[in-house]
Amino acid sequence: MAGSEGPRRSARDWVVDSLSFVLAILISLVAYDSGRKDPIPEWLHDVDFVLGLALCLTLWFRRRWPVQLALVAAAISAFSDAAAGPTLMIILTVAIYRPFRTTVLIFGVNTVSLAIYIAVRDKPESIQVTAGWAILIYCALAGWGLYLRSRRQLLQTLRDRADRAEAMALLQAERGQLRAREEIAREMHDVLGHRLSLLSVHAGALAYRPDASTQEVASAAEVIRASAHQALQDLREVIGVLRAPVGELPQPSFADLPALVDDSRKAGLPVALELDAPGNLPEHVGRTAYRIVQEGLTNALKHAPGEPVKVKVIGSPGNGLTVELNNPAGQARRGDGQGLIGLTERAQLVDGRLEHGRTPEGEFRLAAWLPWPA
């Protein structure tokens, strides 16, 4: 139904409206027949019948204009018995679809209409009986309508909550997928970036040294082959667990740090390592420290190959772990910065902090502090 119920009736609305129309006509005919003995002019009986049936036809529009039709019904009910059926249906409609204040107002208007009806029709029954039954029926209909209205509001509230819960669950699932993708992308960057940097350095050395001896060429080719093989293995491991939980991705440990430095040295990068971190370092903190050193060495290989790098990793339980890399000519060229952004996020995830940039002496410095509980 147009208006408050929407542009079209549903199948249920058609059934309810049809039953209401038939029931209103039956009530009106019974009421009209019982009022034929009232001492009123014959022409008023005719007007009673015509307007009562006309009011029944308006029931098809009661959802669109319930208050307006209720006022019209109250005016006709002031003298009409045939208006009883549609008036009751319209009062019920107002109670269902309009606020409680409006229902009370319509009830008051019908009370006035009842007083006029009693004076006009001059019923043989006592005024108390007529008024009592009419008010009782009005109150019952209004109460039933208010109950239906409250129930509909409750159901609508539950539907809204269910829709919001579904939308929130979908949003949380999307956020979870986004976090998983970011974690996977970070892992692939960390795992493959270092290996590919080694490949790039050795391949570049072969390209720019055509006078290299056969032994040097063979040595460089062997390093390239080993690095390519290891990169392929790392890539297979990452792809193999893309559908597994993020925590199952291949993860290095703090104990792998010396081997990481040795790989960089074999690639021709002079690395001085100062490692002093005795104690049982938490796994997530040690892994974050490894990734910071790995990203720093990768950037040194890419942007300043052959330049010395100082790596210092010191700390103790209760004082935290300090990771620092210094390169005299590091970051000579700008990259996309995604590696450093990822490192900053990693440090924040373990409640640490990371900073990077040029020192007054012109060195590039990458430093981080990570918590190490006592």
Give a description of the structure.
The protein is an alpha+beta fold. The protein has 2 domains: 11-167, no CATH class; 256-374, Histidine kinase-like ATPase, C-terminal domain (Heat Shock Protein 90). It is 64% helix and 9% strand. It has a 5-stranded mixed β-sheet with strand order 1-2-3-5-4, with helices on one face. It is rod-shaped. This is histidine kinase.
Layout of secondary structure:
Elements: H1 11-34, H2 42-57, H3 66-77, H4 84-97, H5 100-121, H6 127-208, H7 214-240, H8 257-266, E1 271-276, H9 283-303, E2 309-316, E3 320-327, H10 338-349, E4 353-358, E5 364-370
Parallel strand pairs: 1-2
Antiparallel strand pairs: 2-3, 3-5, 4-5
Helix pairs in contact: 1-2, 1-4, 3-4, 3-5, 4-6, 5-6, 6-7, 6-9, 8-9, 9-10
Compact overview of the structure:
It is an enzyme of class 2 (transferase). This protein is of the alpha+beta class and 374 residues long. The protein is 64% helix and 9% strand.
